[in-house]
Amino acid sequence: xxxxxxxxxxxxxxxxxxxxxxxxxxxxxxxxxxxxxxxxxxxxxxxxxxxxxxxxxxxxxxxxxxxxxxxxxxxxxxxxxxxxxxxxxxxxxxxxxxxxxxxxxxxxxx
Length: 110
Known about the structure:
- By secondary structure, the protein is mainly α.
- The protein has one domain (3-103).
- Helices cover 38% and strands 4% of the residues.
- The protein has helices at residues 3-16, 54-65, 70-77, 96-103; strands at residues 24-25, 30-31.
- It has a two-stranded antiparallel sheet.
- A hairpin with a 4-residue loop joins strand 1 and strand 2.
- The radius of gyration is 16 Å and the shape is elongated.
- It starts with a helix and ends in a 7-residue tail after the last helix.
- The model has no long low-confidence stretch (mean pLDDT 83).
């Protein structure tokens, strides 16, 4: 995962999905943001999602379709401008998270 993909994963996880992007304090074994424990039944290693996968794509796609701005979002890059023909870059796990993040205000870090 490159730096921009990591940044997009964190942005979409926190701002769009409303979940914590866990950063672990290795001394206390707690998330430094939500203080969830990494031990016992609350074990969180591996909970951070890679949204640039088919699983991540469908999670984002299904939630985005429920948003009031879905049609405006699709129309932004859709050359045909109909909901019957969705621009091919949207139906792609490697490009959809970036398009969604940019639409929601994410800015590329340089």
